[in-house]
User: Which sequence fits this backbone?
C-alpha cells in the first residue's frame, strides 16, 4: 500500500493529518486551561489527580501527534511524488516508518490509560473515606509515565530487523516504566488499607480495574525483555496483555467514572442491582478472556491470522475466550439499558450521593447552566477524607441550592 492504492487511501492519510491538527489544538486548549485558569487557591498540588492525568495526557498529545502526521505525509509524498523515503530501491529505509509510527503510537496508549488511572485515584479515597496515599508522588508519576512513554517505542520492533545495538537500551527504558506505574499501585493499596470501604458499582469497577491492570502490568516485562520478546512477539500473548492493559487502564475506569458521575450528569440514580450485575458478568469473563489469550499464545497461536492448526491443542482455550467475549458484550448491553432507562425514569439523586469533597458535587445535579455564579475558592487538600475539620473548597453562598 505504500506504493500503490486508490485515491481514497490518499484521502485517508490527509484525514488523519487534519485529525492530528484538531488533537494538537485541543491539547493546547486543555493545557492552557489547567496551567493558567485554575480556581483561586488551587495550586498544582491541590488539583484533583484526574486533572494531573489529563495534564500528562495532553502533554503527550501536543508533542507526539506530529510524528504520526509526519509519517503519513511521507507515505503520501512517496506515493504521489515518487519520494522514496521507505523504498530501499531508492535509498529509503522501511524501518524508518516503524520508528516514526511507534514513536507516536506507543505514547498514544497512555493517552487512553493516564485519564483512566486518574479516575481510579480520584474515586478510591471517596469510597475508602481516607486520604489518597502519597498524593504528590501519584501526581508526578503521571508525568513520569508520560515522559517514559517517549523512550520505549522500539520495544515494538525487536523482531523488525532494526539495529541490534538499540535492543538493550530500549529494553531497560521499557522496564523503567514499571517504576511510576508501581508508585500508583502502592498508592492504591495504601489508600485501601485501613479504609472504611463501601462497594457501590463505581467502587467495584475501580477494584476490577486494579485486578485487570495488574494482569496487564505483570504480563508486560516478558514483552520488554529481548530474549522473551523474540518468542512472544505477534502471538496471542501480546493480544491478552494489550487487552488487560486497555481494559484495566481505560475500560473499567471508564465504567467506574460513568456510574460515578451519572447522577451529576442526569440528576438521577442508576439501578444499583443492574450495575453490579454488569460488573459481576464483565470482570470474571474478562479474566477468562485475557488469561486465555495469553495461554493460547504461549501454545503457539499467532495474531492476525484467520485460522490455526488444530494440532496446537488450543480449541478449548479459543472456545472459552469466545464465550467470555460474548458475556462481556452482554454485560455492556445491560449497562446501556440500565443507564438509558435510569436517565429517563431513575430515582432522583441526592445532591451529593457519594459524600465527595470535589467542587462539582457541591452544586445541584444536573449542573445548572451557570455552574458557579461566582468563583469557588480552594482552601485545602482534595482528598483529606476522614480528617476532622478539613475542607477542600468554599462555594459562594449565592450558588444555587440543590433542586433550584
Assistant:
Amino acid at each position: 500500500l505504500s506504493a500503490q492504492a486508490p485515491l481514497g487511501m490518499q484521502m485517508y492519510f490527509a484525514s488523519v493529518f487534519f485529525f492530528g491538527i484538531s488533537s494538537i489544538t485541543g491539547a493546547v486548549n486543555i493545557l492552557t486551561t489547567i496551567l493558567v485558569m485554575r480556581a483561586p487557591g488551587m495550586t498544582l498540588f491541590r488539583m484533583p489527580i484526574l486533572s494531573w492525568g489529563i495534564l500528562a495526557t495532553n502533554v503527550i498529545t501536543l508533542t507526539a501527534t506530529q510524528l504520526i502526521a509526519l509519517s503519513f505525509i511521507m507515505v503520501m509524498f512517496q506515493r504521489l511524488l515518487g519520494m522514496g523515503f521507505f523504498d530501499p530501491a531508492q535509498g529509503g529505509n522501511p524501518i524508518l516508518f516503524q520508528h516514526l509510527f511507534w514513536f507516536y503510537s506507543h505514547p498514544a496508549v497512555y493517552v487512553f490509560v493516564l485519564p483512566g488511572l486518574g479516575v481510579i485515584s480520584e474515586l478510591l479515597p471517596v469510597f475508602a473515606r481516607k486520604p489518597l496515599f502519597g498524593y504528590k508522588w501519584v501526581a508526578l508519576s503521571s508525568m513520569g509515565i508520560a515522559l517514559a512513554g517517549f523512550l520505549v517505542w522500539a520495544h515494538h520492533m525487536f523482531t523488525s530487523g532494526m539495529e541490534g545495538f538499540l535492543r538493550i537500551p530500549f529494553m531497560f527504558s521499557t522496564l523503567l516504566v514499571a517504576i511510576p506505574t508501581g508508585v500508583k499501585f502502592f498508592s492504591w493499596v495504601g489508600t485501601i488499607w485501613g479504609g472504611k470501604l463501601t462497594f457501590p458499582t463505581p467502587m467495584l469497577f475501580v477494584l476490577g480495574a486494579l485486578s485487570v491492570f495488574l494482569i496487564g502490568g505483570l504480563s508486560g516485562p516478558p514483552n520488554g525483555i529481548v530474549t522473551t520478546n523474540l518468542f512472544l512477539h505477534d502471538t496471542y500473548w501480546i493480544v491478552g496483555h494489550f487487552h488487560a492493559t486497555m481494559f484495566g487502564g481505560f475500560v473499567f475506569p471508564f465504567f467506574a467514572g460513568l456510574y460515578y458521575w451519572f447522577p451529576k450528569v442526569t440528576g438521577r440514580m442508576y439501578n444499583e442491582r443492574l450495575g453490579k450485575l454488569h460488573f459481576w458478568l464483565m470482570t470474571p469473563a474478562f479474566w477468562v478472556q485475557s488469561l486465555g489469550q495469553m495461554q493460547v499464545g504461549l501454545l503457539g497461536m499467532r495474531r492476525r491470522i484467520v485460522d490455526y492448526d488444530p494440532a496446537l491443542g488450543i480449541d478449548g482455550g479459543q472456545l472459552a475466550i469466545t464465550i467470555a467475549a460474548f458475556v462481556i458484550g452482554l454485560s455492556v448491553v445491560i449497562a446501556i439499558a440500565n443507564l438509558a432507562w435510569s436517565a429517563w425514569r431513575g430515582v432522583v439523586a441526592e445532591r451529593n450521593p457519594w459524600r465527595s469533597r470535589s467542587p462539582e458535587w457541591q452544586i445541584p445535579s444536573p449542573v445548572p447552566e451557570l455552574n458557579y455564579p461566582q468563583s469557588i475558592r480552594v482552601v485545602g487538600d482534595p482528598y483529606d477524607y476522614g480528617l476532622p475539620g478539613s475542607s477542600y473548597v468554599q462555594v459562594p453562598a449565592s450558588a444555587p441550592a440543590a433542586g433550584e
